[in-house]
Amino acid sequence: MSGRVRRTDWRDWYVDGGESAVMVGSNVVVLSELASALLEAVEEDGWTPVATVAAALREEFGDPPGSTAAAATGVALADLAAEGVVELD
Questions:
Q1: Which residue, 18, 68, 83, 76, is CA-closest to 42?
Q2: What is the residue range of 8's domain?
Q3: For position 46, which CATH number holds?
Q4: I need a labelling partner for 31 at 20 to 30 A (CA). Which of 22, 40, 57, 89 fits?
Q5: Around Cβ 42, how many Cβ atoms within 10 Å?
Q6: Would you tell me how many other CB atoms lie within 10 Å of the CB of residue 79?
Q7: d(CA 39, CA 42)
Q8: Nearest to 52 by CA among 32, 33, 28, 77
Q9: pLDDT-derived band of residue 11, with 50, 70 and 90 as boundaries?
Q10: What total number of domains does the chain contain?
Q11: What H or E segment, with its residue span, contains residue 6?
């Protein structure tokens, strides 16, 4: 996946260990350790290249079995976009 990603306007981000939760509107979205690290790699304000996020995840977690960090990042970003946590460009 190419392009850019940015955080949406959610209210709060609660972090506990490696996992976290964000409040998007009136919904709470619980994030795994990987999704939390992904969100950490996205700049607070403005757009972040997807390749930058994928590189950060690869550095922290390595390539997933049978895939690449870039492909796995694309899937994770699509999931987070569907929940309203991030926006893709």
A1: 76
A2: 4-88
A3: 3.90.930
A4: 89
A5: 21
A6: 16
A7: 5
A8: 77
A9: confident
A10: 1
A11: strand 4-7
Q: pTM of the predicted model, to two decimals? A: 0.90
Tokens 């757009």 belong to: 47
Q: What is the secondary structure of 10-53 as a DSSP string?
A: -SEEEEETTEEEEEETTEEEEE-HHHHHHHHHS-SSS-EEHHHH
Q: Which two tokens stand for residue 8?
A: 């949406």
For 27-52, how does the pLDDT look when each residue is reduced to its tens digit (9 = 90+)? 999 999 999 999 999 999 999 999 99
Could you tell me if 8 and 87 are in contact, meaning their C-beta atoms sit under 8 angstroms apart? Answer: yes
pLDDT above 80 (res 2)? no
Helix (H, G, I), strand (E, B), or coil: what is residue 62? coil
